[in-house]
Amino acid sequence: MDKAQIQSFFDSVRHIREKYDAVESVTAEKFNVFSILRVDNAELQHSRFLTELLNPNGLHQQGIKFLELFCKQLGIEGFDYLKAKINIEKSTDDGRIDIWIDDEKSVIVIENKIYAGDQDQQLLRYHTVIDKRFPKAYLFYLNLWGTQPSEQSKQGLKEGKDFTIISYKTDISKWLESCLKEVTLVPIVRETIRQYLNLVKNLTGQSLNRQFIMEMIDILKKDGNFRFVNQISEAYIHLKIKTQISFWAYLEKLLILKDYKVEKEISRKTIEEDVKSFYFDNRNKSTFYGLSFTLCDNFKDKYLLKFKIGINSEGVIYYGLNPYHNSSKKKCDKDYVHNKSSELKKLRNDLNKKGENRNSIFNWDEDSLLASRVAIEVDFDFLNFTGEDIRKIIEMDFNYADKLDNLHPFDKLADEIDDVAKKIKKLLTCNPLNL
């Protein structure tokens, strides 16, 4: 592989990218109010916006247009749009449903997943609720790329018969594009939908425009450039690995500087091996690894509470609280938290309870943590290697053992974790450790 050839290839790519960057600077395409307000990973806020568009009485003042287009996109027939009633986070005997639309005779239910994990028997419970009440029921499992729900959630339900998988990448994007055509003369609504569509495309890796892709294809065809793409791809994977390892090391040092006694949480021999497995073994992306520290060593004289920071299967950093039995030092499983411990159940409810500002400390829970949330003060996607803060990490010196200066964006994340940890300690009735 000739070094001059590779350099020429990258020079060509850089030239094309700079050309499209110049276009973006004129069109201001990167300016996005949803991203600025950190709505990217906020599942509830996505549900709120979708619900507002689908509501015939919404502030968009477009009546049934958007709901009708949505039903057309998903193949829903016979729905009475004029009788539509829509709810967000509708309470039922079997949990809160993200988006609920009914016309008294039929119902559309959407379980919306951005980065949160599935809850126990979630789809089965929702299917049971709507199947009893409506002769015609549509249950949709919405996520970024159209991935399958967990067996734990569907419990034997059949895709295509009991529920349908839809994605932001395809179904929501196409629906939003059809909505745009209906509001060309309504500038505020049009531009708001356009910005949200751009956010969806960015979240699902579709932000590169078609012209850019076609020019890239031409470069790959030229002078046999495609022959060394595999080698570049392999080097790219190793850059991802090195970058994520650097991230964990920097974050650990910053938390230590804040006087937390940090431990590495590993599934293999080292966190380096966990990071490599994250990129090379698709079956093990759900395995937890990261960092932790103890917040309370004797909650209710029964439990040790650990604050954990990890990475989910989509490459996004999240954190949360994990209870352990003091006697056995074993982690309390989800069934124990929900059904067998009144103290932990109350703590979980307190952590997820909305206050006067409508914000809870945490906003979702999953199998391994009592309560958790996606980090909001950083723009990381370690799987797709996107986000402004990823670039900053790459450009930093990887010699993290000796340098702790210029740690932005790590300092933002460390401050966020510290702030949340302090809020949790205020809720605890035990005497927390001197950290």
Provide the fold topology.
Layout: H1 3-27, H2 33-36, H3 43-54, H4 65-74, E1 85-92, E2 95-102, E3 106-112, H5 122-133, E4 136-143, H6 151-154, E5 164-167, H7 168-182, H8 187-203, H9 210-221, H10 229-257, E6 263-265, H11 271-280, E7 290-299, E8 303-311, E9 317-325, H12 334-340, H13 342-352, E10 364-366, E11 369-374, H14 388-395, H15 410-427
Parallel strand pairs: 3-4, 4-5
Antiparallel strand pairs: 1-2, 2-3, 6-7, 7-8, 8-9, 9-11, 10-11
Helix pairs in contact: 1-9, 4-7, 7-8, 10-11, 10-15, 12-13
Brief summary of the model shown:
The protein has 435 residues and is an alpha+beta fold. It has helices at residues 3-27, 33-36, 43-54, 65-74, 122-133, 151-154, 168-182, 187-203, 210-221, 229-257, 271-280, 334-340, 342-352, 388-395, 410-427; strands at 85-92, 95-102, 106-112, 136-143, 164-167, 263-265, 290-299, 303-311, 317-325, 364-366, 369-374. The chain is globular, with a radius of gyration of 24 Å.
Write up this protein.
There is one protein chain. With 435 residues, the protein is an alpha+beta fold. The protein contains 15 helices and 11 strands. It has helices at 3-27, 33-36, 43-54, 65-74, 122-133, 151-154, 168-182, 187-203, 210-221, 229-257, 271-280, 334-340, 342-352, 388-395, 410-427, and strands at residues 85-92, 95-102, 106-112, 136-143, 164-167, 263-265, 290-299, 303-311, 317-325, 364-366, 369-374. It has a 6-stranded antiparallel β-sheet with strand order 6-7-8-9-11-10. β1 (85-92) and β2 (95-102) form a beta hairpin. α1 (3-27) packs antiparallel against α9 (210-221), α10 (229-257) packs antiparallel against α11 (271-280) and α12 packs across α13. The longest helix has 29 residues, at 229-257.
